[in-house]
Amino acid sequence: MTENWLAAFPPLAALPDDQRQRLLQIAQIAALPAGQTVFHDGGACANYLMVIDGSVRVQMVAESGREIVLYRVEKGQTCVLTTSCLMAGEDYNAEGLTETDVTAAILPAAAFQDLLATSRIFRAFVFSAYGTRVNGLLALIEEVAFGRIDQRLAQFLLDRGRESASLPLTHQDIAVELGSAREVISRQLKEFERRGLVRLARGRIDLADREGLGLVAK
Hints:
Helix content: 40-55%
Strand order of the largest sheet: 1-8-3-6
Distance between the termini: 48 Å
Radius of gyration: 20 Å
Number of strands: 11
């Protein structure tokens, strides 16, 4: 593949020609189908993942089976968990799954470490992405620990319903996204339905009153 894939990562455009060519030579381009496990809890971290197109969902699964989505890695982004594991020499403690067909550049760990040590621009790219994602994870922790579930659910529905008032989501899907239990989400959705804010159907939620949901989300 040509160097066109680097266009997905604008900060790397400033790489000197020798470092750019080295990155292009070492990185392998992978096409991953939707639904594939990219890494799993307890697995060794051997590569640095740079998503050129598509979406990878990173989530944690408790022994009870309860799941929470930590973040998504999309076009032009990298995986903070992978970065952390590579720098600390540790195994993964979460799993990554492709939500769509994904095209990614795979950089072997040794090459990642070398570029991190020798390239100021690559190092700035890695740590900028790392810092941004850590801030997002801290916000997630704050929401899960201190946020009211009715507010979080209302905001989630509004965010997902920007383009369509009919959302193909199950109660379990939402529970995973919000780090809650399915039963809690079901009870709250039933309350929203009673108040005329949503209409519930099997595998679908219709937004009936966006203004009302907005008032709940405040």
